[in-house]
Structures are given as C-alpha cells and as structure tokens.
Specification:
- By secondary structure, this protein is an alpha+beta fold.
- The chain is built from three helices and six strands; from the N terminus they run E-H-H-H-E-E-E-E-E.
- Helix 1 (40-49) crosses helix 2 and helix 2 (53-67) packs across helix 3.
Length: 154
C-alpha cells in the first residue's frame, strides 16, 4: 500500500476539535453526563456519511439481527460500512519509524472513520485542514485501523 500524502515539511498539522452529537440531539437529550449513550459507532457513521442519526441506528439494529452481533460491534458496523455505504477498511497509519499515529497526527484530504481503543470517531480531512468531529476530544488516542470511502483510496 502507498503512503498517504504528507504535509509539506515544516507545516505543522493542527487538528481542530468540533463537538457534535451527530444528530442524536434531534431525538434524545444530550446535555447531561447521564445522557451519554455509548453510541460512537452511530455518531461516527452519521457524521462521515451525512446520513441521519436515527436512520443509521435503525439500519445497524436491523443488520445486527442478521449478523447476530450488537450494532456497535465491528462485525455489524463493518459490514454496514462496506456493503451499504461503500467504505473500505484500511490498516493503521504509521509514521516513518513504523509507530502508530495518534488521531491528531493524521494528515490527509479525505474523510475517515477511525478506530481507537474501544471507540470509533470521525475525522474530516478537507484539503489537509483536519477536524475531529465527535462528542468528546479523542485527538490524543492512538489511531488503529480506519475506514475510507471507496474511490478515496490513497
């Protein structure tokens, strides 16, 4: 696999963070700590695909009955991303010393759904202006495998 395009030397990547509940706020309360829902998979997919939060949730619930796995398990959401959304799973990005990147170190010009430890998040890469869009700031987490839209492949 080719290396993803890199920023010119000396140009520091400053990933922004934008707080968003991915549309959950249209259907459920999100203001208080008790309103946290463990819905990162639904949020990340809704953000990345522009699909309504509830539509993603319903699709994942339906598919989870078919797969026999919970909607937030990769066996379900991976199948959804690949077969219904046209996204492809990629191996983790690494630096020149073969170390895994932190979310904030990702540099590209496309949208990614990134897996971190026990979490799924959305990174918007618009012409190397990187923005993490999520309900909490996980820029310091290690980025594991990621998903990108088919046709956007490096």
């Amino acid at each position: 696999a080719e290396m993803p395009p890199q920023l010119p030397k000396g140009k520091e990547n400053k990933m922004e963070f934008k707080k968003s509940f991915g549309g959950r706020e249209k259907y459920f309360p999100t203001k208080l700590k008790k309103d946290k829902a463990g819905d990162c998979v639904v949020r990340a997919i809704a953000h990345a695909t522009g699909t309504d939060y509830m539509a993603v949730w319903e699709d994942l619930l339906e598919l989870s009955i078919e797969t026999g796995h919970m909607p937030n398990q990769e066996r379900t959401y991976g199948k959804y991303l690949e077969e219904q959304m046209g996204w492809i799973k990629q191996k983790p990005m690494r630096n020149s010393r073969n170390k895994l990147l932190k979310v904030k170190q990702i540099e590209c010009d496309k949208d990614l759904i990134v897996s971190t430890s026990g979490h799924l998040t959305y990174v918007n890469g618009d012409n190397f202006q990187m923005t993490l869009i999520d309900s909490w700031d996980c820029r310091n987490a290690t980025a594991y495998s990621y998903w990108e839209r088919d046709g956007d492949l490096f």
